[in-house]
Specification:
The protein is of the alpha+beta class. It contains one helix and twelve strands. The chain has two domains: 27 residues; 122 residues, Sandwich (Immunoglobulin-like), CATH 2.60.40. The strands form four sheets. Strands 2-1-3-4 form a four-stranded antiparallel sheet, with no helix packed on it. Strands 9-8-11-12 form a four-stranded antiparallel sheet, with no helix packed on it. The protein is globular and about 40 Å long. The N terminus is likely disordered.
Length: 158
């Protein structure tokens, strides 16, 4: 009986040590996190319907993925910079509007980014309405007129 108990304790200790080593090897900043747009906001995880998603990782430029891929190329952010990514879309609602989604992406749309009342850069959305831009840490206004959002960019954060 004591040999069986000793064997169980050894197996338990090995599994705990292995799990601890695995968790230590997978630091949060070393793996990609995926977010998909569901027509209302970004949700964690890849898109369930083969729509694009955004892969993010600390210290690395976000990547818009049009399809699921086993590997994602990473480009490090410059020192003192962060990144923002998102989607420009038109919300569909009610009436005779049809289709399988509640929004229509706005492809190739120019998007103004300003700070302190000065225009800094204009980025263009891709074919799916997504954009990614790397900026120095600070507070920015993205968009124009009534379609403006204030965004804070932190160094090394996406």
């Amino acid at each position: 009986m004591s040999r069986v108990l000793s064997l169980l304790l050894v197996v338990l200790a090995c599994s705990v040590i292995g799990t601890t080593a695995l968790c230590a090897a997978k630091r949060p900043g070393d793996s990609w996190s995926y977010y998909h747009f569901d027509g209302i906001g970004f949700k964690a995880g890849p898109a369930p319907d083969d729509k694009p998603c955004i892969a993010v990782r600390e210290g690395v430029r976000p990547v818009v993925l049009l399809t699921q891929t086993a590997s994602t190329e990473s480009i490090n952010l410059p020192e003192g910079a962060g990144a923002i990514s998102g989607i420009c879309y038109i919300q569909s609602s009610g009436g005779k509007l049809g289709g399988d989604s509640a929004y229509a992406p706005c492809p190739r749309t120019p998007l103004l980014i300003s700070s302190g009342g000065k225009q800094l850069v204009t980025v263009q959305t891709d074919e799916q309405g997504y954009f990614v831009v790397v900026l120095a840490a600070g507070t920015y206004h993205v968009g124009s007129g009534p379609f403006t959002a204030e965004i804070s960019v932190e160094s090394g954060i996406t």
